[in-house]
Structures are given as C-alpha cells and as structure tokens.
Amino acid sequence: MPGINLKVNGKDIMVREGVTVLEACRQSGIDIPTLCHHPDISTAGNCRVCVVEVEGSRTLMPACITPITPNMVVHTDSPKVRKSRKAILELILASHNSNCPECVRNKNCELQDLAERYCLTDNPFQTEDKPESFIEVSPGVVRDESRCIMCTRCVRTCEELQSVAVIKPMDRSSHVYIGTFGDLGLSEVPCTQCGQCINRCPTGALYERSEINEVLAAIEDPDKFVVVQTAPAVRVGIGEALGLPTDHNTGQMAAALRRLGFNRVLDTDFSADLTIMEEGHELLFRLKKALVDKEPVALPMLTSCSPGWVKFIEHMHSGLLPNLSSCKSPQQMFGALAKTYLAEKEGVDPSKVVSVSIMPCTAKKFEKDRPEMRDSGYQDVDFVLTTRELARMIKMAGIRFDRLPEEPFDRFMGESTGAAAIFGATGGVMEAALRTAYEVVTGSEVPFPGLNICAVRGMEGIKEADIPMPAKMAAGFEFLAGATLKVAIAHGLANADKLMRMVESGEATYHFIEVMACPGGCIGGGGQPIPTDMEHRLARMKAIYAEDERLPLRKSHENPEIQMIYAEYLEKPLGHRSHKLLHTSYKERGRT
Questions:
Q1: Per-residue pLDDT tens for 502-523?
Q2: Phi, psi angles (nearest 5°) of residue 208
Q3: Most buried among 308, 312, 327, 518, by the most CB within 10 A?
Q4: Is 305 considered catalytic here?
Q5: What residue numbers bound the domain in which 361 lies?
Q6: Catalytic option among 148, 154, 305, 361
Q7: Same domain for 452 and 551?
Q8: Are residues 493 and 577 in the same domain?
C-alpha cells in the first residue's frame, strides 16, 4: 500500500494511506490524548480532547476523525492546542461529579489522568454545584449518571460489539444523557449484563455491582463454611489488575484466597472439565438421535457456558433455545455440587455452605440469581466477585501478591486439566470438547500436533472448522465413521447475532457452535482489568494457552477428580443425578 508523507511537530514521517492523524501520530510514537476514542469501536469525534493544529486549517481539527493528506503539517502540542485541550477538559469537569476518592475508578480513570496531565487545579467554568451520584443498580451493572461525560463509548459498544443497543443518548442540548427507551432500568430491557460497556467507559459512570462486603461478612462468620471457586480467565487477569505483567498466576491466586480467609479454595476449572464431560456426551446423544434413530433433534447444538450469550439468545433468537445445550455453566455446576457433593465429603451442613465465585464476568452476577439455579436445594452460588473486585480485596488485606509462594487448590473440586484452562479464551470450549469427544468415539487422541486444534483458535469474529472422523470408531459410535463434524465459534454478541441469522436462514449448517458473549472470550470479560483492548486480550490469551501447555493433564476425561465424582456420586454423564444438578432449561424473554 502506498505511503503518505507528512510533517508532525517538525518531523517528517511516512504512514500508510487511509489512516487518521491520531493513528499516524501514535504509529510514530506521539501520544495524543483521547476520551471518546477506543480502538474496539467506531470513532465519534465528540469529545474534542484530541484536537491538533493543522497548517492551512481555519480551526483546530479532531485527530481521531481527520484523515491524513499528502504533505500535511500537524502540530500536536502547540500553545493553541494546549490551551484548547485544557479548556475542553475544564468544561467536561464542570459538570462531572469529581468526588474521586469515592469513585470505583479512582486512580484508573482517563479523565482523572488528563486532569493531572494538564494541571487542572482551578476551573473557571465551575458556576454551580457538582452533580450528586444518581445510581441505577442492575444485577451486574451499575450506572452513575453524575460521572458520565457523554463520550458515547458505552452506546457504540452496546450497538456495534454486542448488537444489543439498549442505551442511547436521550433528550437534547444541555439536557442530553445516556438512557434507555422509556427510561427503563437495565433489568427491564434486553441488557445482557455482559459489562462490555464498563470495560470501555473512561470514567466511573459504569461499574459492576460489588458484593465484597457480603463476602467479607460471610468469611468472618464462624458459623459459615465459605467455599471459593476461580474461573480460568481470572488467573491470567489478577496479576494485571494488581499492576503486574500479564501471566498465569494460578498458585499465587490460590495462596491469596487462602490468606483472605476462605475455608476452601477450589477451582472452576474442575467444573469446566465436568462441563466437557456432560456437554460432549450431550452432543454425541443428539448426533446419534439424528443420524441413527432418525428422530427430530435440535442441531447445531449451541454452548451454554456464557451467561451473557444465554440471555442474548433468550431475547433475540428464542427460536433457537432448543439448540442450546442443557448444561449449566461451570460456575453453576460447581455451585450445585458445592452444596451437595462437597458438603457431604467435608461433613458440613449444606445450609452453612456459602458458595463464592471469582469470575471475569459481570453477567455471572445475573446468572447466579436465576430461579433455575437452585437444584442443590439452596441457591447454588451465593456471591460473585469479578477479577477487579478480587484485586481490591487483596489490596484491602495488604497482601503482597508478587511475594506469595505458589500453593495448590484444595481437594475434591480443585483438580483440573489444560482443557479446562483454555475455557477462558474464545474457541477454548470447542477445543476442550473436541479433545474429549474425539477420543471417546475413536479411542485415540485428536490428530493435531500436541493436542492443539489451531483451527478453532484466534481472534477472528467467526471461525469455522471441519473435523474428519476416521473409518474405525469405538463400539457404539460406528454411525460417525467417515463423517465430518462441522463446528463454528463466535465471540462478541454482534458476531453471535450474525452467525445465528445464518443458521436460522439455512445459509450455514453445523453440528456444534461455541459462543462467548465477550470479545476474545472470558479473557475480555466485563469484570476483567481495565483497560481491555486487543493488545491486552492477546496477552491474556497467550497466558491461557501457556497454562494449558504446562499442565500434566490436558484432556477433561483424564482428570482424576472428575473420574472420582462420577464413581462416587454422579454415576455417569447424563445420568439421573447429573441431569438434576448439572442441567437446566431457559425461556424466551422477548425483545423489549
């Protein structure tokens, strides 16, 4: 592609054609501040913090939407630019609730950073009292209108990345605000509680509903037996949330949780392995019913691990609900077993068990309160904390995370495999399922180097793969001999929406589809460290696959604790007890 020459701050640079001034400058190592811009979504150009001086232009130009032209001369830090940016920030701050110490984003706020950068200590535009917090609480997401700066990142995220579009700028002029149709609460509209809006909000206008105090109270209650589980993506996000490099911090995380006072430190990866056993056998059951018994069956089967995706399909594609796997998510499987199997093994009254989840996901807070999730006889999961909330608890307790020794998880529901670890990345559930399902039906490992099924990996929004079955099959699975298993993967609800429309129209046919609500999968979940962008998602994904590679067991059916729980308690996949505790159904919710 041909390059274009321009001069920035007196220096000649060459960039590719078609980029903006903002992109050209950042590629050349020149930082231009932004508030409304985010690399995951379209540009809006409405905050004007990124203005630059372009010679020959009558006014300052917003760098994020101004395309470069040959021989353009740009000044990014002239006195005129600095004065303008400072005035723009002062205007934003004049109507912003600046009680920073009480804000969840204190010291991790883009507006706060810019105010410090431009030495804003006195505001000439401050003519009236600052707005007080207006809090609207939903199960996973909290809105504070007083901290909104109208950058519309949340609006573009909801519409472009997630195809939900439940929030919009409302009213006009100085009365404009971000709201929903009819000013309904987020619980009253088809919000999926995915929290992607939180991850792209530059201030504290959006954040997760915290349950830290409730968890601390349970830990401090001597009458309670508090069990904690940790999702795969948390172990590659917790270090980052504490200011450390992105890595798999599994052992240190277990040590930190033990020091916080949990009675048992266990692992959602255990129930991810369990999910593969149940989901894989469910897929084989459906395929046999369709191919051998010639009975009507809902194919393709759709994964059900992601609660944001499940709520999305309930609202937007309810005709495909029969296709959704009946398996609960790993979080909910764990919760049901914590108050039955684990309580029995530990000799604890299940009414005294408090089940806590550490998740990369705000939608998990909604999922735990579903009425379907009480098959243990109690609420299966009592409290959900995000990765960010766990980081706050660790800081609150004064724990030096980087100095902790690696410690193992506790027994019974703490053993896991690499197949469970990759649940945290898009394509991971599919890869884990194929590792086990292929071996079940053929008696041999998947024919991919090192068990790595690279066709289902990567950041493409929609991925497809064909998995050929050999001519020789294990007994009972001869009907799959020579067949080709067609699979697909989507991450981000906009991609899921596109894929579901293809399925509904008959344009695409598959046997098995994995969907994750969040871009990149759980590593990019709504409860993960901020910022979350492609660079951070790729680093977390790399750490997830490194975790898989380092573990001695990498196939779910090889997990000794999974073998033990079936032998002692569940009997077999899709058995009577596993069906009662580990499976569920969902319902249509409507589009409004």
A1: 999 999 999 999 999 999 999 9
A2: -80, 150
A3: 518
A4: yes
A5: 224-269+331-403
A6: 305
A7: yes
A8: yes
